[in-house]
Each structure stands twice: as structure tokens, then as C-alpha cells.
Amino acid sequence: MVNDMEGLDRLQVYCKAQELAKLIYQLVLPKMPHEEKYNLSSQMRRAAVSIPANIAEGYGRYYYQETIRFCYLARGSLMELSSHLQLAFDQGFLPNEMKSIFDENLTDVHKLIQGYVNYLKRSKRGSYEPRAQSISENLLEYSLNLEDEDF
């Protein structure tokens, strides 16, 4: 593997997103009805793996604006996964006892993504690159008790 994977593995947001994807594979997909294999199950699988994949791709760009852009994509996939999970619970495909597990994990990953974005905006690594000012979003207040290096 690429040497930078060691740095990526220390990125808390990436590790937590990987854990969420593993939970989908271990707890959700086996419980989904066979008729949903190529529909809802497939959509959940793609959204779940897209979250850490986008974080990893952004991390590999070495340019804060690109990293932020891929974090936004990861956040979008996270919201997509949340929607799919809600539908699966509403349809009775998944037991309600699992809902709190996923609510907590989705919230944690969302906060970590936003915290990482805020950190990147503050540090502005690669801020002198072309298009450095092209991505903008108001900084949202999130309650995180994490240090910058925890992301």
C-alpha cells in the first residue's frame, strides 16, 4: 500500500467512516430482504463505502480545497445512507433496536466530517493553489470535544 495510508489510518474521521461501512455490511445487509438485493441494499452499500472513499480521496489530494470538496461529497453520501437506513427501518426490514446504534454512528461521522472541514479551513493547507477561494460554506457550530490532531 501507499505510505500515506499510515497517515490516513490516523485520521479519526476516516476510521470512524470505515467502522460505519463495516456496520452496514455486518448488521444491515444480511437482514435486508432478498428482493432488495439490487435496490435498497445496493444503494446502502454504495453510500456506505463512498463515505470513507471520498475522505481518502480528498486526503490524497494534498490541497485543502480539494480535500474539503471531497469531505462535502462524503457528507452527502452520509446523508444518503441515513435516508436509506430510515426507509429500511420504516419498512420493517431492520429491527428498531438497531436504530440507536446507527443514529449515534451517523451523528459521530457527521460531526467528525464537519470538524475536519473546519480544521482544514483554519489551516488552509495549499491556500496559495489555483482556485483556493472557490469553495465556500459558512462555518457551522458543532459541539466537538476533539483536538485538531484527532481528525
Structure in words:
This protein has 151 residues and is mainly alpha-helical. The protein has a single domain (7-127), classed as Up-down Bundle (de novo design (two linked rop proteins)). Helix content is 62%, strand content 0%. It has five helices and no strands. It has helices spanning 5-9, 12-28, 40-59, 64-90, 99-123. Helix 2 packs antiparallel against helix 3. The longest helix is centred in the middle third of the chain and has 27 residues, at 64-90. The chain is elongated and about 45 Å long. The two termini are 21 Å apart.
Keyphrases for this structure?
single chain; about 150 residues; mainly alpha; de novo design (two linked rop proteins); about 60% helix; about 0% strand
